[in-house]
Automatic annotation (TrEMBL):
Keyword Cell membrane assigned: yes
GO BP: any one term: transmembrane transport
Membrane topology term: Multi-pass membrane protein
Domain Citrate transporter-like per the UniProt entry, residue ranges: 27-442
Bilayer-crossing regions: 6-25, 58-79, 180-204, 313-334, 346-365, 385-412, 432-456, 476-494
Protein name: Citrate transporter-like domain-containing protein
CDD domains: YbiR_permease
Length: 495
């Protein structure tokens, strides 16, 4: 593709640069409008600067990907309502044999749940629970938060529904669900194990001894709190932190909460001791609750059946978006209630972010810069030899952390596949799978590498009474060796 006129190249690059800065640093002081508004700003500038026409901007929006995202989000909301994630949480604490065993369980459950329910959803649901587990056992939170985020990214690589860039690749490459899983699953399984071993090696001493100072917040972590954690939709929001005044305020609130719980226990004892009539009433209420729970069993089983059917249909049908939407509508009908409260939990800001990103990336593509850069690297990045695969992996790793993994897939996907198709059809499929693997694992390199990392960091920082800050450098210290080693091993296993 030839380079566009110089004016369009400059203005298109400027628009893309603004989009990139706001996507990576959503709270920059000079324009703290966030990622979603930043993507729309980049798209609007592309049209205003006449890099692309309005009709081309509309055509750039990939409706199948948006449909697949929407359907998957709705299914995840209904899965949460059926308490499916609560059972995952119970597995973390069942007969745990210590911090190292707990770390390995978090890696395993995070990887599996991410492959089935997307990495962002798993991180939103499990972050606060993992933080509570660490605080309850008086353990440092950051190894477990790193285990959750990194394993979620690695695990999500195994399926087209695991993360956003895999959705893009599945739609563009038309690779069937089953073939996609078979191609990447061995790399994912080995990658999760290697990642867990790296975590254990780095934090072995820290996990072998408990912290000397007991955290005051651990006192309020009860078993019922861990089993009642609820899902909240993933959002692309800013970072926040607790200052000392806010912490002191929350500490006072904790003390009031403890006193309130003690008073509630005293009142409960006094109420139960009133007599047999009250006991009979309590028994009747207990039976009513049990009957209500039996009534709720059918919808829960229905949700599990529909969700399983969705994944089964993916194995045989390449039209993933319609399958996801059909599953979401089936759950809405099965629930037999107004679906509006559930639909309101869908993170529409992410869908809007994708719309703006599609337009911005398409405009940048039309400048000719990505095509010419790939033309320079193409001869060195052929996947028919080890050196070419290594060069391609490095290019994807760098771009995924500079421009984010989804824009990288949009920029390189068609070009990498076309270059591999010139060799053979099998190499074209392998090129798509390499792109999926490397762009996903690249999210572990730095805190800004993937949305899942940001979700874990933000959820942990905002957790009531348990706030913890996972710093950029602490993540980078683990992320660099883990990403390089896991990526290299996985590349040898992709089929």
């Amino acid at each position: 593709m030839a380079m566009a006129p110089a004016v369009k190249v400059v203005l298109g690059s400027l628009s893309f640069a603004i989009f990139w800065v706001l996507a990576v640093f959503p709270a920059v002081p000079f324009l703290p409008i966030g990622r979603t508004a930043g993507s729309l700003l980049g798209a609007m500038l592309m049209v205003i600067f006449q890099v692309i026409t309005p009709d081309q901007a509309y055509a750039a929006i990939d409706l199948p990907i948006l449909g697949l995202l929407f359907g998957t989000m709705v299914v995840s909301v209904y899965l949460e309502r059926a308490d499916m994630f609560k059972y995952l949480s119970k597995l973390l604490s069942w007969k745990s044999r210590g911090p190292k065993d707990l770390l390995c369980r978090i890696c395993l459950i995070s990887a599996i749940s991410s492959a089935l329910f997307t990495n962002d959803t798993s991180c939103v649901v499990l972050t606060e629970f993992v933080l509570k587990i660490a605080r309850q056992h008086n353990l440092p939170p950051h190894p477990f938060l790193l285990a959750l985020a990194s394993s979620a990214n690695i695990g999500s690589s195994a399926t087209p529904i695991g993360n956003s860039q895999n959705l893009v690749i599945a739609v563009q490459s038309k690779i069937f669900f089953g073939n996609f899983v078979i191609g990447i699953l061995p790399a994912m399984l080995v990658g999760v194990i290697v990642n867990a071993l790296i975590l254990l090696a780095m934090y072995w001493k820290l996990l072998s001894s408990q912290k000397d100072e007991e955290d005051a917040t651990a006192e309020i972590v009860a078993e019922e709190d861990m089993n009642s954690h609820r899902f909240s939709p993933a959002t692309l929001s800013h970072f926040t932190s607790l200052n000392p005044q806010e912490w002191n305020s929350q500490k006072g609130h904790v003390e009031n909460t403890l006193r309130s719980r003690a008073n509630s226990v005293d009142n409960e004892i006094h109420r139960v001791s009133r007599g047999a009539s009250d006991s009979a009433r309590i028994l009747i209420e207990s039976n009513e609750v049990s009957f209500q729970r039996r009534e709720e069993t059918v919808p829960s089983m229905g949700v599990a059946s529909v969700a399983s059917s969705r994944d089964f249909l993916y194995l045989w049908d390449s039209t993933c978006p319609w399958t996801a939407i059909a599953a979401a509508l089936s759950l809405a009908v099965l629930d037999f209630k107004d679906a509006r409260p559930n639909l309101e939990k869908v993170s529409y800001s992410i869908l809007i972010f994708f719309c703006g990103m599609f337009i911005t990336v398409d405009g940048f593509n039309r400048t000719g810069i990505p095509s010419n850069l790939w033309d320079l690297m193409e001869t060195y990045a052929q996947i028919d030899h080890i050196g070419g695969i290594a060069v391609l992996a490095v290019v994807i790793l760098v771009l995924s952390n500079l421009a984010s993994n989804v824009p990288t897939v949009l920029l390189l996907g068609a070009r990498v596949a076309a270059s591999a198709a010139a060799i053979s059809e099998a190499d074209e499929k392998k090129a798509w799978l390499i792109l999926a693997w490397v762009s996903t694992v690249a999210g572990n390199l730095s805190l800004m590498g993937s949305a899942a990392n940001l979700i874990v960091c933000e959820q942990a920082r905002r957790a009531p009474y348990l706030g913890y800050t996972l710093s950029f450098w602490r993540h980078l210290k683990f992320g660099v060796p883990s990403t390089l080693i896991v990526t290299a091993i996985g590349l040898t296993l992709i089929r």
